Amino acid sequence: MLNENILRKVRKALALASNNPSEQEAQSAMLMAQRVLAEHGLSIQDVQESENEQEKNVIHEHATEYGKTIWWKKRLSAIVAENFRCFSYINKRSNASQIRFVGLDSDVSLAIEIFKFACETIQYHLSKYRQELKESGYRKVEVTYMGNDYLKGYLRGLDQKFKEQVEKNNWGLVLVKDALVVQEHESMNLKKSKPTGASFGGNNGAYERGFTDGKSFDSSRKMIAN
Q1: What pLDDT is attached to residue 120?
Q2: Where does the record place the DUF2786 domain (predicted)?
Q3: Is 120 in contact with 18 (CB distance < 8 Å)?
């Protein structure tokens, strides 16, 4: 089926990138996954509008297990959701929480794959950046603050890259969320998230480093075979 074919191509791209964890490979995988979804969006709609139209199922699926939800994962989930026709939200239970996505079945499956891969990629590059800071003699508290500045820049760079790709390829209408998904989200009456409690150092160098890494990718590299 078409949806399964899309999933297969995205999984192949992420597998190729994960074997070579560079900034360019990682960002290429995420952006190319968005491209595949967008390029096949109209075809998916055509299938849904055909005589063999299948029922649309709006699902809620968790992307993280219950525990402490890190601030940057909340922001990342919102970025991914926006670019894969879903909504993300925090589901709380007692003193724990988890990140969940709501959307059509195939869209949620893609969003969660991209989210998890992005988390691994960000953690890899953050760890490398923090190690550089430690080796340069920065104190522990400075490493923490500058690491958060780096993350803030990284997420901003990744978000901007997604938006530029959407604008460049005129994918705005393709990535519009299904009406059933919007209706489901509105019916949930979710409260707005509280401001992050993370501490930032306001270091422009760390932010710019993260921003550059978040936007960096090699557009000439063919990640997904037809």
Answers
A1: 86
A2: 6-43
A3: yes
Tokens of 31: 């952006």
For the chain, the straight-line distance linking the first and the last C-alpha, in angstroms and rounded, comes to 15
Residue 222 lies in a domain: no
Number of domains forming the structure of the chain: 1
User: Which domain does 32 fall in, by range?
Assistant: 2-214
As given in the structure block, the two tokens for residue 59 are 């699902």
> Does a structural domain hold residue 223?
no
Give the pairing of strands 87-93 and 96-104.
antiparallel
Instruction: Name the nearest CA neighbour of 215 among 79, 95, 91, 109.
Output: 79
If you write DSSP's letter for every residue of 95-112 in order, what string do you get?
A: TEEEEEEEEEHHHHHHHH
- What is the percentage of the chain residues whose pLDDT exceeds 90? 39
pTM of the model as a whole: 0.74
**What radius of gyration do the chain's Cα atoms show?**
18
Residue 6 three-state SS? helix
220 within a domain of the structure (yes/no): no
